[in-house]
Amino acid sequence: MKRSEGYKDMKEQKPMTQEELMDKFCTNVKAVCKAKGLATGVLELKAGMSRGYFSKLNKATKEVGLYTAYRIANTIGCDLKELLEDDMWRKTRIAELEAELKALKEGDQRKDDQDDL
What are the boundaries of each domain within the chain? Predict the structure, then answer.
């Protein structure tokens, strides 16, 4: 690919609005918390935020600053860039399903081991 072609592709991409970016961030934070079994109350405490402030962020009614977004990402063990990706919720759901499958397999294995006794 020529250098000018890459630039042309970048130029054609429409930048996200602030609302779209906030919505994506909040959706991804919720998905990661759900997948990790992290309650919002725990996240609030670990990130050092009040319940009301976090509630507004969670509903995407409050703009989040860069430092706050970084603290949230760090608290839930993600890279900030990941929380802004389009398909983060898909990746998170896949990880969630893989964890459930692993738990089911382990449960079946334990059951088989008990049956052998």
Answer: 17-116
How confident is the model over 84-105, as a mean pLDDT? Answer: 76
Count Cα neighbours of 24 within 13 Å in the Cβ-side half-sphere: 16
Q: What is the DSSP string of 46-102?
A: HHT--HHHHHHHHTT-S---HHHHHHHHHHHT--TTGGG-TTHHHHHHHHHHHHHHH
Question: What is the distance between the alpha carbons of residues 104 and 38, in angstroms, rounded to a whole number?
Answer: 21
pLDDT tens digits, one per residue of 9-67: 555 667 778 888 888 888 888 888 888 888 877 888 888 888 888 887 777 777 788 88
pTM for this prediction: 0.62
Report the CATH fold assignment for 17-116.
Answer: 434 Repressor (Amino-terminal Domain) (1.10.260)
Alpha-carbon Rg for the chain in angstroms: 19
Interatomic CA distance for residues 62 and 109, integer angstroms: 47
